[in-house]
Structures are given as structure tokens and as C-alpha cells.
Amino acid sequence: MNWKMARRAERLNPSTIREILKITERPGIISLAGGLPSADTFPVQAMRDATTAVLRDMPREALQYAASEGYGPLREWVAAEMASHGVKAGADQVLITTGSQQGLDLVGKVLIDPGSTVAVESPTYLGALQAFAPYEPDFVAVEGDEQGPLPDALDAARDTRFLYLLPNYQNPTGRCLPASRRLALVAKAQALGLPIVEDNPYGDLWFDEPPPPPVSATAGVGDEGGAIYLGSFSKVLAPGLRLGYVIAPRLLYPKLLQAKQAADLHTPGFNQRVVHEVIKNDFLRDHVPTIRARYKAQRDAMQAALQQHLHGVARWQRPVGGMFFWLELPAHIDATALLPLAVEAGMAFVPGSTFFPQGGHANTLRLSFVTVPPEQITQGVALLAQVLK
Hints:
The chain is of the alpha/beta class. It has two domains: 9-35 and 285-388, Aspartate Aminotransferase, domain 1 (Alpha-Beta Complex), CATH 3.90.1150; 63-281, 3-Layer(aba) Sandwich (Aspartate Aminotransferase, domain 2). Helix content is 40%, strand content 13%. The chain has helices at residues 16-24, 44-57, 59-63, 72-83, 99-111, 126-132, 179-192, 215-219, 253-264, 269-279, 283-310, 335-345, 374-388, and strands at 30-31, 94-97, 117-121, 138-142, 144-145, 148-149, 163-165, 196-199, 227-232, 244-247, 324-328, 347-348, 350-351, 364-368. It has a seven-stranded mixed beta sheet, sandwiched between helices. Strands 11-14-13 form a three-stranded antiparallel beta sheet. A two-stranded parallel sheet has the order 1-12. Helix 2 (44-57) packs across helix 10, helix 5 packs across helix 9 and helix 11 packs parallel to helix 13. The longest helix has 28 residues, at 283-310.
């Protein structure tokens, strides 16, 4: 048969991280690669109780087809929660998605034309590049410093469809934009008429103090505002539920909804009802601090190991939240070429070049500190240092 693939199929690429995860399934490999939440943080008993309650009290509704917009009480919870962070939106602006990754795909489907430009941080989240790429944009890399994208660098993003931004504990760098930088970026974006797509999967994972208010709180998610906000339940409950949400201006909401209807009709209603049952009585207020405490201890273990084994060899910043360290190696070292040597030695990481829209920066890599216990973090960093040296 003469199968002919669409042009967009040529722009579909495998996830480097997912491919590395296959390697790390080998026995004895200490994986500091995948950005997977610790399974020890999953609230199994709360989920078990909620599942029983949903199947007892609303089994037919939970197992039936559901509204594409999402479960009403869950959308109301999201709107109320985000209002407490300064993002003013009605429940009718909340679209429940199958993970925030689907939100990125819907945004790309609705806002990107072939040949249009999209501004992204440099580096940025690999999954966003993958989600946007099939819609054939040209990526504009917005240069930044250790505090994030530089406001004046947005001049290079003039006439782009939107700026994709991860303000809180960014994947991959772990950096968090200070309040002053957020305000300056919004002011510059507004002056340029540049919309912002704010992705915030890690914002609840702060260690010492919460991050500044969301960019969307200043830019606004109303029709006169200039932001779309994406959130997720993956990092505070469980990623296997595949639950996220988009908060969008009412002007855009119908098209995002139609794009979702074409993709999957609706996110599983059973999952939505179970999650709402878990969180409706402030469960997260007590649960999330336990995650923060665990991740902070693991962050400290990685910081100590890096200081012990790689001081003077690599450069990094200690993250104040999230899940990642970002390392810059000596200029002559290619992290992609280093990876198989590290795997042979017994550990794995993610090479950094995959996070840059135009590639390059071969001497960078990402380490995740939340999936393995502190003693294995120490062993993994020691193995990395051994291979480097």
C-alpha cells in the first residue's frame, strides 16, 4: 500500500527523556534522568477512599460519557484556588485536560499556523517543543540569565503568536523568576501585544517560601488580558491520573474546547470525580507540605553531593523548589556523548541540548533529585563525577 504521511508527521520526534527512561529500566542503574514524582508521595489511601465513595454515591455518572469542559465542581475548585493566587477567572474559563501536556497541544492547535513564530525560553521544556512542533512553527529563543528571560530580549519575539513561559522552578533549569522580573516581562509583553502562555506544573513544590504571584495574575486571563494559564494535578497527587487544566480568555475558550472534543471528547470523568472527592475538603493543604519536605531533603542531598564531587568541575545553581538541577560542564565536554559512558558506569541523566529549540549547548545536562532516595543520589553523582574525571 502507498501510505503517504502528512508533512506534520515529519516533525514528530521521540522524547529524548522517554528514550532514556527505557535505558534506566536496566537493573542497577541509578536514574537521575526522568522528572518523575516520587511514588512514595502518592496518597494511595485517600485515592482508595475516594474511589469507593464515587462508586458508591455516583457510579452511573462517573462511568458515563461526560461534558467536554470537565466536571463542574472540579472546575469551580480550580477557579477558586487560582483566585487565591490572584488569577481572576470564572469556572466557565476552566477546561479540564488529560494532563497539562494536552493543554499544550490544544494551545498549539488553536494558535499556531505553519510558518508562524512562537517565542520560548532558552532552554525550555522539551514536552512543549514536542507539542508545538507538529503545527510547524518557527521557534524564537528568548535569551535570559540566571533569573529567567530578559525583558529586552522580547524584542526578538515581536509579532510571534505567544511567549511560552515556565516561571516557577523551570524544567529543565530549576530557576524561579523573581517578582520584579515577572512584572517587567508582562509590561514588555503588553507593550509588544505579545500573549503569554504560562505553564505552572511545579509551583506548589517550593521549599522555603512560595513563589511570587503567577504571571497570569498580572497579565490577566480575561478577554482584555493577555495570558493563558496551564496547571496540573500530576505533581501534587499522581501523574497516572492524567489530570490538568487550562484557564483561557473567553474569546479563546470555545476553540480550545472544540479542539479537545476532536481529540478525546472529554478527560475521564471517573478520574475527575475521584480527584475532586480527594481535594474538596482541603486535603492538599496537609498533603503538599509532606512532598515539599521530602523533596527539600533530596535537594539538599544532591547539593551536598555536587559540592563534594563536582566543585570546580561543573557549574550549577541550587534550586529553591521543583525537581531539577541544571549543570554546565566544561565547554569541551559533550553530554550526549557522555551519557552512554555514565550508563555503563551505573547512572543516567538527561543531556541538555535537547531543551534548546535550536540545539547546541552540548555541555549542559539535567539531573532530577526527587525519584531516588538521598543515598542513591549521592552514589549517582559520585558515578557521574568519576566518568567526567
